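Tokens in:
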């Protein structure tokens, strides 16, 4: 469950997380805060690791007291090749506050239904990117044909 005020921008490289595929967005991400009054604030590495990527960030000084949810989680409900259906749940006090489905057409490379909140939509895109990379990893560099052969 990622923080609902986290706007992920780039996948974290390295060993910031022991099991990155288990994270709410399928990997660790860097990004910025979108909490009211703190838009664009760059979280520290510790905040990214302990709060932004995990949700339920009560220890975060930027988290607004009045909010519609505390965390967001995603899962793939259906994978029919070119058609992917993602479920999302926004949680408040460890209970569902909002839920729904988002659809992605891989053959067209576009969302056929998206979330009205740009933060949650961006998180869905990051989750989908991580999911697709796990399902279809790029070939290792040494297996690519050499340009000199």
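Residues out:
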């Amino acid at each position: 469950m990622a923080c609902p005020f986290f706007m992920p921008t780039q996948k974290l490289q390295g060993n910031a997380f022991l099991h990155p595929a288990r994270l709410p967005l399928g990997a660790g991400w860097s990004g910025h805060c979108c909490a009211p009054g703190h838009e664009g604030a760059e979280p520290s590495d510790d905040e990214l690791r302990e709060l932004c990527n995990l949700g339920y960030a009560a220890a975060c000084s930027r988290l607004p007291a009045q909010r519609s949810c505390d965390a967001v989680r995603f899962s793939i409900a259906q994978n029919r090749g070119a058609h992917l259906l993602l479920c999302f749940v926004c949680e408040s006090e460890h209970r569902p506050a909002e839920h729904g489905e988002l659809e992605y057409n891989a053959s067209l490379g576009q969302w056929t239904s998206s979330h009205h909140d740009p933060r949650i939509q961006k998180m869905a895109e990051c989750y989908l990117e991580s999911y697709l990379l796990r399902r279809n990893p790029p070939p290792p560099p040494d297996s690519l044909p050499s340009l000199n052969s």
